[in-house]
Write a structure and sequence with these properties.
The chain has eight helices and eight strands. The chain has helices at residues 9-20, 30-36, 64-72, 77-85, 95-104, 109-115, 132-143, 153-160; strands at 46-47, 50-51, 58-62, 89-94, 121-123, 146-149, 167-171, 174-178.
Length: 188
């Protein structure tokens, strides 16, 4: 003799219909059912996956390896940002990125000199530790008004999970951007 699995969806539908047709005394109140509904913390400036808070002048968070790749490909950061975005951009550096460049030693002293440029916006960090990837991900999840510039595969993978944050990277001796809304006319 065959029996129906208690987890079968037909039985679950039957139980739901019994619950909705139950007397008013046993039925869940609207207040209880509204507590079961969960909402995600999506910022108001997000339109589906497009970030409407992004606009010129763009704030670009630079990562350590992005600066190194820019130097090795002989790209001026400000000029290449302008060529990629077709709009003014403000390169931003966190204290963690500068600390990471200092830790790398004398091999990356040129990258450190480029990073210490006065035209770059310095963003202070209030957390402990100097791991730049965690700092960038944390800052982007809080504000979402930045474009993250990195060539690090792991960091790109982490940032792709955050909706509405474009990623810029060095490819074929120029900057390329992904996940930028179509209306901004950025190259793919």
């Amino acid at each position: 003799k065959k029996t129906v699995n208690p987890n079968d969806e037909r039985l679950q539908r039957l139980n739901k219909s019994k619950e909705t047709n139950a007397p008013i005394v046993n039925r869940k109140s609207d207040a209880e059912t509204s507590k079961e509904i969960t909402t995600s913390n999506v910022p108001a400036h997000m339109f589906f996956t497009h970030n409407t808070a992004l606009g010129p002048p763009y704030h670009v968070l630079l990562d350590t390896n992005f600066i190194n790749f820019s130097i090795s490909n002989k790209l001026d950061v400000r000029k290449a940002l302008l060529d990629c975005l077709f709009a003014p951009a403000i390169p931003c550096l966190t204290d963690c990125v500068l600390a990471e460049l200092q830790k790398l030693g004398s091999k990356y002293r040129l990258a450190l000199r480029v990073a210490r440029d006065r035209t770059f916006l310095r963003l202070p960090c209030s957390h402990k530790g100097t791991y730049a990837d965690d700092c960038l991900v944390e800052r982007v999840t809080q504000h979402r008004v930045f474009i993250v510039a990195t060539n690090d595969k792991d960091l790109k993978r982490r940032i792709r999970k955050i909706p509405g944050v474009p990623i810029m990277y060095v490819h074929a001796h120029k900057y390329t951007i992904e996940r930028m809304p179509e209306g901004f006319m950025a190259p793919r």
